[in-house]
UniProtKB/TrEMBL annotation:
Its cofactor is FAD. The keyword Membrane does not apply. This is Probable D-lactate dehydrogenase, mitochondrial. It comes from the Eukaryota. Involved in D-lactate, but not L-lactate catabolic process. It comes from Equus caballus. Keywords: Acetylation, FAD, Flavoprotein, Mitochondrion, Oxidoreductase, Signal, Transit peptide. The keyword Ion transport does not apply. InterPro entries: FAD-bd_oxidored_4_C, FAD-bd_PCMH, FAD-bd_PCMH-like_sf, FAD-bd_PCMH_sub2, FAD-linked_Oxase-like_C, Oxid_FAD_bind_N, Vanillyl_alc_oxidase_C-sub2. Residues 62-242 form the FAD-binding PCMH-type domain. GO terms for molecular function: (2R)-2-hydroxycarboxylate dehydrogenase activity; D-lactate dehydrogenase (cytochrome) activity; D-lactate dehydrogenase (FAD) activity; D-lactate dehydrogenase (NAD+) activity; FAD binding; flavin adenine dinucleotide binding. It is an enzyme of class 1 (oxidoreductase).
Length: 484
C-alpha cells in the first residue's frame, strides 16, 4: 500500500512552486489543481464563504480561514494530500465537525483544511470483542444509532454531536466519564496519516486488544494531540454493554459544598454512579427557561444509575440516603426513557440555555479539572471572581471527575468585556493549577491555553513535547500554532 501511495503521488512531486507565498496566503493555481487531481474538483473549494466556515469552531477565537478546503473520500487520498502539502511546505489543518471550544481549527498560517466528514463509514463491528472501527466522519450519535440493536453502546458524550476522531484528537469526555472513562480510556487503536503521508496504526494494523505491554503507547500520544501530529483516519473504539436498566434523578442542595460533599460520599461508598453532574443555580434557572424543566433554582445534581433492576434499587436507596444526609431536597426520579432523555438533553443544552440568557451575545466556555476534594473551593472562588469581574456566567460540570465548565456570555462588539472574560478564564486555570489540577479536563489547549500548558507541565515537559512534535512533523506544518 505504501509503495502504491508513493507511486500515486510521485507525479505530483515533480511539480514545484505550488504555493505562491510560503505557508501563509493564497495558494497558487497549480497547487489547487494538484489538490483537485487527488480528490476530484468537486471536493476542493477556495470560495470565501466555505473557507470562513472552516476557519473557526464554536469558540470566540477569531475566524482565521484556510486557503483551501478539501474533502477526501478515503485514506489513500488523505495520504496523498498530506504528502503533497508536506512536499510544498503548506500547513494542514484537520477538521472534524468544528464543535471545538479552543480554536483548534483556526488556520493561523493559512494552508489546507482537510474536512474528513465524507469518510463516514463504520468499518468493522466486533460485538464479541466489544470494539468497533469507524472513519472520521462518524459522529458519536450516529455510532450509537448504528449500535441500537446490538446490546452495545459507546458512552463518551461531549455536549455536541462531535466526530469520534475529532473527539479522539481532543481527548474529549462528557457526562459518562465518571463510570466509563474518557476518550483516553476508550480508544484502542488509531489509523493516522503522518504529516509526510505515511500511514501509522498506533497499536498495529487491525489490532483491538484490551491491554498491552508492547513498547511505547503511541495511541496515547495521538489521543489529545489536537491535529498537531497527524490526521486520524480511523479509530478503534471500546464498546460497553448497554445497561439492562437506567434511572436518572435530580436533587437540589443548600450549597455548592453540600452538592460536592454528596458526590465524594457517593463515590467513597462505591455506588457505581454512571453520571453525576453539578449545575449551579444560574445554570438550573437557564435550563428551566430554555428546556422547560421545573427544577428548584439551587445548586443541583443530576445523577444516573445503570445496572440490573435489583442493583438499581440498592444504588438508588444508597444515593438518596447520602444526598439527604447532606441536606438535599426536591428529590425526583426519572425512570421512563422519555423523561430521562428530556433531562439529559437539557443538561447537554445547558450551554445554549446560558447563552439565551443574554440574546445577541457569544458564548465563551472554559473548563478546568482539579482533585475532587478541591472542587468546592475552586467553584466558590470562581463564582466570587465572576461577580467581582461584573461578568455574566454560570458553572456546570462533571463533578464526579472534579471537572467543571464556566460558561460566560460576552458581547462580541465589546473588546473590553472580552478582555475581562479572557482574564477571568486565565485566573481560573491558574487557580486549578495551584490546586494541583489541570487547565483543561476536556476542551484541550488549542490556541488559547498554550501558555497555561507550559505552566502546567513545566519547561522540561514542554521541551519533551516539542521534541516529539519535531520528530513527527519537522517542518511544523500539522495544525501550526496549536498546543505548543
Ligand atoms: C455545546 C457544546 C458542548 C460541548 N461539551 C463538551 C464536553 O462535555 N466535553 C468535551 O470534551 N468537549 C465538549 N465540547 C467541545 C467539542 O465538542 C469537543 O472538543 C469535540 O471533541 C470536538 O470534536 P470535533 O469533531 O467537532 O472537532 P473539531 O472542532 O473539528 O476539531 C477539534 C480539534 O481536533 C482536530 N481534529 C479534528 N478531527 C481530527 C482528525 N480526524 N484527525 C486529527 N485531528 C483532528 C482539529 O484540527 C482541532 O484541533 C462541547 C462543544 C459544544 C459546542
Amino acid at each position: 500500500m505504501a509503495s502504491l501511495l508513493r507511486a500515486a503521488t510521485w507525479g505530483l512531486f515533480l511539480w514545484r512552486g505550488y504555493c505562491s507565498r510560503g505557508t501563509k496566503g493564497e495558494l497558487s493555481k497549480g497547487f489547487v489543481e494538484a489538490l483537485k487531481a487527488v480528490v476530484g474538483s468537486p471536493h476542493v473549494s477556495t470560495a470565501a464563504v466555505v473557507r470562513e466556515h472552516h476557519g473557526h469552531d464554536e469558540s470566540v477565537h477569531r475566524c482565521q480561514p484556510p486557503d483551501a478546503v478539501v474533502w477526501p473520500q478515503n485514506v489513500e487520498q488523505v495520504s496523498r494530500l498530506a504528502a503533497l502539502c508536506y512536499s510544498q511546505g503548506v500547513p494542514i489543518i484537520p477538521f472534524g465537525t468544528g464543535t471545538g471550544l479552543e480554536g483548534g481549527v483556526c488556520a493561523v498560517q493559512g494552508g489546507v483544511c482537510v474536512n474528513l466528514t465524507h469518510m463516514d463509514r463504520i468499518l468493522e463491528l466486533n460485538p464479541e470483542d466489544f470494539s468497533v472501527v469507524v472513519e472520521p466522519g462518524v459522529t458519536r450519535k450516529a455510532l450509537n444509532t448504528h449500535l441500537r440493536d446490538s446490546g452495545l453502546w459507546f458512552p463518551v458524550d461531549p455536549g455536541a454531536d462531535a466526530s469520534l476522531c475529532g473527539m479522539a484528537a481532543t481527548g474529549a469526555s462528557g457526562t459518562n466519564a465518571v463510570r466509563y472513562g474518557t476518550m483516553r480510556d476508550n480508544v484502542l487503536n488509531l489509523e493516522v496519516v503522518l504529516p509526510d503521508g505515511r500511514l501509522l496504526h498506533t497499536a498495529g494494523p487491525g489490532r483491538h486488544f484490551r491491554k498491552s505491554a508492547a513498547g511505547y503507547n503511541l495511541t496515547g500520544l495521538f489521543v489529545g494531540s489536537e491535529g498537531t501530529l497527524g490526521l486520524i483516519t480511523a479509530t478503534t473504539l471500546r464498546l460497553h454493554p448497554a445497561p439492562e436498566a437506567t434511572v436518572a434523578a435530580t436533587c437540589a442542595f443548600p450549597s455548592v459544598q453540600a452538592a460536592v460533599d454528596s458526590t465524594v460520599h457517593i463515590l467513597q461508598a462505591a455506588v457505581p454512579v454512571a453520571r453525576i453532574e453539578f449545575l449551579d443555580e444560574i445554570t438550573i434557572d437557564a435550563c428551566n427557561r430554555y428546556s422547560k424543566l421545573n427544577c428548584s433554582v439551587a445548586p443541583t445534581l443530576f445523577l444516573e444509575f445503570h445496572g440490573s433492576e435489583k442493583a438499581l434499587e440498592e444504588q438508588l436507596q444508597r444515593a438518596e440516603e447520602i444526598t439527604q444526609h447532606h441536606g438535599a431536597s426536591h428529590f425526583s426520579w426519572a425512570k421512563d426513557a422519555e423523561e430521562r432523555s428530556r433531562l439529559w438533553q437539557a443538561r447537554h443544552n445547558a450551554w445554549y440555555a446560558v447563552l439565551a440568557l443574554r440574546p445577541g451575545c457569544k458564548g465563551y466556555s472554559t473548563d478546568v479539572c482539579v482533585p475532587i476534594s478541591r472542587l468546592p473551593e475552586i467553584l466558590v472562588q470562581a463564582k466570587e471572581d465572576l461577580n467581582a469581574s461584573g461578568l455574566t456566567g454560570a458553572t456546570a460540570g462533571h463533578v464526579g471527575d472534579g471537572n467543571f465548565h464556566c460558561m460566560l456570555s460576552v458581547d462580541p462588539e465589546d473588546p473590553e468585556e472580552l478582555r475581562r472574560v479572557k482574564a477571568f478564564a486565565e485566573r481560573l486555570s491558574r487557580r486549578a493549577l495551584a490546586l494541583h489540577g489541570t487547565c483543561t479536563g476536556e476542551h484541550g489547549i488549542g490556541l488559547g491555553k498554550r501558555q497555561l500548558l507550559q505552566e502546567e507541565v513545566g519547561a522540561v515537559g514542554v521541551q519533551t513535547m516539542r521534541q516529539l512534535k519535531a520528530m513527527l512533523d519537522p517542518q511544523g506544518l500539522m495544525n501550526p500554532g496549536k498546543v505548543l
